[in-house]
Amino acid sequence: MRSALYATFLCLLWTATVILGSQPAKAQTYGIRKYSRFNKAPVAHKKIEKKGVPLLLKKKLFANYVREYISFGIAAHGLNYMGDIAPEPGFFTVDYSLAKLGMGMSMAAQVNARTAFRTELMYGKISSSDFEVANPLDPQAVYRYIRNLHFKNSIKEISLIGSYDFIANNRPLVFRPVIAPYAFTGLTFFHHNPKALVPMEATLSNGETIIPEQAGTWVALRPLKTEGQSKPYSNFQISIPIGMGLRMRVSDIVNLETELGYRYLFTDYLDDVSGNYPDKGSLDSDLARILSDRSQEVTDALTGEIRRDRLPADSPLMRRFISYTGADGRVYTVFSGYGQPNQIRGNPKLNDGFLVTSMRLSIILGKSPIANKNSFRKWKR
């Protein structure tokens, strides 16, 4: 009887071993214990892979084994433009109501207990309008209100970013900090293409009102050289991202990251506004002349509202007309200070930029291929 029971017990034990892989209890204990003998851990990890341990057990062993890891993330971004078409002149003036949504994906790999590298793809949009952000009752902003420029731009970028954790993680990832603040910087390559909406009617030479051929459509501004550039600026640019973030541990293999970053740019043409007004007669087309100086438009192209309604009734600013003869021999009538050669259109002393607010969900995939193997410190639970 005892022999039969003993044989039955062995049979059940053998069946359980086959179903679970091979000796899961030993593998699990070894997986947790291996940090007291880190030099042997790679060998143990290979054994675990060969023995066909069930998936859930592999994840548990993996979470107890890895400290520096590689992860894949998807992110939602909010982009806020900073430049010449802003609420106030100067740096760091933002209208958060004009924030645009972006999206991205990334792959990150840790090097050691504090540093990591990340490559990221991002797509987002930015926009602004003098009619929306400039206060016509503010003496410092009324100039931009009358200027009446606007734009929208699509940003497509690829980034290489390095991050530094302020809290070192000297533990396996299952025991990593619940909250970890970090700073980041790097290098970004991006493509942009500012556009503007062509008005339904416009004023050109001798006060003549015309209906543009592309009225009511969005057109790219770069080829028009609206400031009389000798050659168009480049659609491809580089920037330096810099910012801070907070990483939160959601589970053994999932992180949630929030970031606030600034893109330091080397161009002032995200909005197609930088320097002075050109001689209208020197521009290549009537469309370029129309979109270079929009101060005489009766309605806002984006909203259809009457622009003069926002100005005080006794405002003299929109009554000061002057005329000049352009390089093409035509006579152009403009508001004083607008549409005249060498009059201020933008501020070339400050490049454009934009803020990126991000929320990223990342999933840990495995051990980092660029981890510093000698950086691990002996850890005892």
Describe the secondary structure blueprint for this structure.
Blueprint: H1 2-20, H2 24-33, H3 41-50, H4 55-65, E1 69-82, E2 100-110, E3 115-129, H5 130-133, H6 142-147, E4 150-165, E5 179-191, E6 195-197, E7 202-203, E8 209-210, E9 218-220, E10 236-251, E11 254-265, H7 286-292, E12 321-325, E13 331-335, E14 353-367
Antiparallel strand pairs: 1-2, 1-14, 2-3, 3-4, 4-5, 5-10, 6-9, 7-8, 10-11, 11-14, 12-13
Helix pairs in contact: 2-4
Structure at a glance:
The protein is of the alpha+beta class and 381 residues long. 18% of the residues lie in helices and 35% in strands.
Task: Kindly describe this structure.
The protein is α+β, with helices and mostly antiparallel strands. The protein folds into two domains: 2-65, no CATH class; 69-367, Porin, CATH 2.40.160. Helix content is 18%, strand content 35%. Strand 12 and strand 13 (331-335) form a beta hairpin. Helix 2 (24-33) packs parallel to helix 4.
Report on the biggest sheet.
8 strands, antiparallel, barrel
CATH class categorisation of the largest domain? Mainly Beta
Helicity level, as a percent range? 10-25%
What number of structural domains do the residues give? 2
Distance between the termini: 46 Å
Which regions are unreliable across 5 or more consecutive residues at pLDDT < 50?
12-57, 376-381
